Amino acid sequence: MPPADSPLTLLILAGGMSSRMGRDKAAIPFPGEGGPSLAARVQLALRPLATDCLLAANTSYGLGCRLVRDDPEFPGPLGGLLAGLAAANSDLVLAVAVDTPFPARALAQGLIELARENPLADLTAASHRGRIEPLFAVYRRRAAIRLREVERLPGERGVPLRRAITRLRTIEVAESTWRSWDPGASSFINCNTPEELDAARLAALEPDTGGPF
Positive or negative CA dihedral for 56, 58, 63, 66? Predict the structure, then answer.
């Protein structure tokens, strides 16, 4: 899947206050001191799939990605997603949370291929444990229009991303399909708290999750 044949933007979502972690998640070395930052792990794993890289954050973390600021009108990851979709140079955008230490390139490739095969879809995402995973997913730039419309509906101001995406035309990829790309569901392990970080560091010692690629 040569990136030059079909443009794709990688959007790393690293905004927010990291309040539950108590420090900047994106800069945390993983699995320990001397390792790459969580932000760098996402970039190293998925940048080869993309023709451009965007980072929704307040600082670049030395990654060399184009920096975009979260849209202040929209709370949580939705603000970063909207900013990234607006700045993307391609129709397809692979959006991934920065606190994902084991992003599986094969899963990303599978979602990208399905998105390319289904041009009417605004969102292509895995269904994990009965829920769509919106922070390791492929969006079309036009999804921003529908997501902004949600915020204008009565009673919908400030809705979380999971609720907002229910308005999108979505390809929901069943576990029976994506498990062949990411058998251990490692891409959906995230680190929002110190306890989750400790658990992920232990998981890094296991052979089926130790490498992000």
Answer: positive
pTM: 0.90
Q: Which phi and psi angles does 15 have, rounded to 5°?
A: -80, -170
Q: Among residues 112, 131, 175, which one has the least CA distance to residue 123?
A: 112
Long-range contacts of 27-32 (CB under 8 A, 24+ apart): 27/61, 28/191, 28/197, 30/101, 30/200, 30/201, 30/204, 31/101, 31/200, 31/201, 31/204, 31/205, 32/201
Domain contains 208:
no
Contacts 24+ apart (CB under 8 A), 110-117: 110/173, 110/177, 110/178, 110/181, 111/136, 111/137, 111/138, 111/173, 111/178, 112/1, 112/8, 112/49, 112/138, 113/1, 114/138, 114/171, 114/173, 115/140, 115/171, 116/6, 116/92
For residue 45, the enclosing domain spans 3-203
Task: Please name the residues in contact with 65: beta carbons below 8 A apart, sequence gap of 6 or more.
Answer: 10, 12, 43, 53, 54, 55
- For 172-213, how does the pLDDT look when each residue is reduced to its tens digit (9 = 90+)? 999 999 999 999 999 999 998 889 999 999 888 876 655 555
DSSP tag of 39: H
Read off the CATH number of the domain in which 76 is found. 3.90.550.10
**How many domains does the chain divide into?**
1
54, 87 Cβ separation under 8 angstroms: yes
Q: Among the listed ranges 61-75, 110-124, 163-177, 199-213, which one has the minimum average pLDDT value? A: 199-213
